[in-house]
Amino acid sequence: MDYGIWSILPPLIAILLALTTKQVFISLILGIFSGAMILTDWSFFAAVNMTLEEIVAIFSEAWITKTIIFSFMVGGLITVISASGGVQGFINYLTQKRDIVKDKRGALLLAYITGLIIFIESSITSLVSGTVARPLTDKYKVSREKLAYVCDSTSAPVCGLIPLNGWGAMLMGVIGVQIANGVVDGTSAELLAKSLPFQFYSIIAVLAVGYYILTGNDWGPMAKAEKRAAEKGLLLREGATPMVSEEATATPPKEGIIPNMWNMILPILVLIFMMPLSLYITGAGNILQGSGSTSVFWAVITAVTFAGFLYVIQGLMSLKEYIDYIYQGIGAIVPVAILLITAFAIGNVIGYLETGEYMASLVEGRVSGAFGPAIVFIMASLMAFATGTSWGTFGIMMPIGIQMAVAMGAPLYPTIGAVVSGGIMGDHCSPISDTTIISSMASASDHIDHVNTQLPYALANGAIALVLYLAAGFMI
């Protein structure tokens, strides 16, 4: 059934309510319910039942369940690492022994560099950056919104630009279908590699983060947040609700423990290196064919287990204390998990309504080739903003974008780059995006405050990228 313009209603309701009420959970539920109303032909009780069933049904998809468990386990890992004295030891090393991080710029650069070098998976990138840098950014009075921005804008963009990860596997898969269908020639790896220089938004986003860190020239809501933190010492806006509790984000070392940075570094190294190993195993020897959801699941389980052996063997805590800290961390992540569950559920409802296909149909075949990359970028951005998923946008827009490029005579590589960049940009702007939610969690920021402060930067970066796509369309 073709739902037409009605298919836009659920994401529109969820996004507008989230931005105006700042109650993301209620906004997502109402978005799901409105979609269910449309799907059940406006039957109230059938829509209520469908809303509840859709929330339960997401656990039937293994990759979603693994992602939620991953979030729980990361919460446990962060808490137990803090209790072991690892985080405090790392802070002492950087600020006292080596005098490396001396101010807020150094603390933010630590998060930035961490985001650049950990490109194995966007969620892990955000979580590691936030975990490592947050104690230092708190010390030097950096707003949580600024840290969330750094975590968010060095996760997906970097993973897209260095696709030796699950992102690369996914993108080559959707490109490969078009090759198999005879739409374009070549190999998926070749086409993706040649499109990387045309991921204009991703490139600009990464450079912009570095610029704002080095110069401090923040503007808009971000400038107000930074001024509040610097002058009043308020890392969060008064009345704001951090994605995880302050107790969980600032778990002190267990009494009597001598802080040691290796108690943090070693488990995080295990987490990082398990990711490519898991991709290699699940891909039967081909890292680019591995399962991203399974790999992050294996990686965090291994890291949590390793941390337990490390701390118990050292006598830092008993097995019971270790388990208690894990439970404490898991408990702190419950609000995040609830938001992820509802975000995935509304994504499924939007899929039933074929919102993405409807949005793409509005321009398909109606523009000249020179405008192709720019139009594809705009459509991918709007689609990711409305659906809250960059990967879902890639799956819908990559076939459409490639076929449009061929039919219109638009340059192919900029068009592929526009799909990826547009998906990431829309994700950065969307309050219902799972990756944006995880970035808020990693920085312990209020989620809507993160969206509101990042939005102007994302739009500015997107405007520059749009100009570059227009130039590429006419010059290549």
What's the gist of this structure?
It comes from Halanaerobium kushneri. This protein is mainly α. It is 75% helix and 0% strand.
Give an account of the 3D structure.
InterPro entries: Na/H_Antiport_NhaC-like_C. It comes from Halanaerobium kushneri. Pfam families: Na_H_antiporter. Its main location: membrane. By secondary structure, the chain is an all-alpha fold. The protein has a domain at 60-160 and 240-345. It is 75% helix and 0% strand. The protein has helices spanning 9-21, 24-39, 44-57, 62-83, 86-97, 104-117, 122-139, 144-153, 156-161, 166-180, 188-195, 200-215, 221-232, 246-249, 262-282, 292-314, 319-353, 355-361, 372-387, 390-408, 412-429, 434-443, 447-475. It is built from 23 helices and no strands.
Write the layout of secondary structure elements.
Layout lengths: L8 H13 L2 H16 L4 H14 L4 H22 L2 H12 L6 H14 L4 H18 L4 H10 L2 H6 L4 H15 L7 H8 L4 H16 L5 H12 L13 H4 L12 H21 L9 H23 L4 H35 L1 H7 L10 H16 L2 H19 L3 H18 L4 H10 L3 H29 L1
pLDDT averaged over residues: 85
Counting DSSP H or I runs of 4 or more residues, the number of helices is 23
Which stretches are low in confidence, meaning pLDDT under 50 for 5 or more residues running?
Answer: none
Question: Please, what is the oligomeric state?
Answer: single chain
Number of DSSP strand runs: 0
